[in-house]
Amino acid sequence: MRKLSFFSLLVALLLTACQNGLGEQTTPAGNKYVLHEKGGGPLLNTGDYAYFNLDARVRDSVVFSTREAGEPQIVPVVPDSVQNPQLEPILDIIRYLSVGDSVTYTVEIDSIPPMQRAPFMAGEEYLYYDIDVVESVDEATFEARQAAKQAEAEAKFAAAAARQPEVLELLATTQEAYTNGTLENIQSTETGLRYVIHEEGTGPKADPSKIMAVQYVGALSSDGTVFDQSFDDGMPLMMGRGRRVIAGWEEGISLFKEGTKATLIIPSELGYGATGNGPIPPDAELMFYVELEEVR
Fold first, then answer.
1. E strand or H helix at 287, and its extent?
2. Which tens digit of pLDDT belongs to each residue from 78-100?
3. What counts of helices (H) and strands (E) characterise the chain?
4. Distance between CA atoms of 225 and 92, rounded to whole angstroms?
5. pLDDT tens readout for residues 59-68
6. What is the Cα–Cα distance from 291 to 178, expressed in whole angstroms?
7. pLDDT at 15
8. Rounded CA gap, 28 and 87, in Å?
9. Which residues have C-beta within 8 Å of that of residue 126, sequence separation ≥ 6?
């Protein structure tokens, strides 16, 4: 009797879902997705821009989330007349949704070329994209928002670039003290990396699964010759989420919280080794002044 009651309830739920238009859907181009919830908002219009949160996961493990990144994905709403088989499935699916809709699109990992598969896909059958449409705006609104973001970013870059003289002076002072053996508060790791924290950050901890923005100046520890920096234009280096940097940076930045200002002293084996790189000679010990500007 209990089994019958459960079966009856399951049938009722399925019937309700079907009546509400929920469940598996197929676009005219043949892309299948599951509609979990209808948000009741306006249908997305051709030419507008859709803002949506996206969680990519294998089974129940989320491997990427726009919510954690702090910004939704944004895509143009493609006209229904465009039925190009090469159109990205998410672009195809999005145009048939409404604001507030929640859907899941499933990708068979075997369909992804081996060279494009991330390590977390090993041994998995499916990659799931959970999508929640949060907003839709017209082209003029979208362009105004992008222009405002660009202006904000440029102001931030200019403020960082304006600090170049003081940063270069700090690096020179640190390098001189290091050479003279008077540099204080040097900490070391088991790999041979050394570092000095000038200012401890209070933000989130560095995380290689997230995007991290780092301002820096790189110099040879032997004589202070600067070979690279971000403060010339104020545009930080973006690292994390598969973006590769030298081992000394990978280890060093991972020690810090957002807002930290520090100097890394990187032995050659954690840098460019016996081959060097451009202006960096072979077997060079490197010194980087770094600021972990943002973790998102």
1. strand 286-295
2. 999 988 888 999 999 999 999 99
3. 6, 14
4. 52
5. 999 988 888 7
6. 19
7. 47
8. 12
9. 58, 106, 107, 108, 109
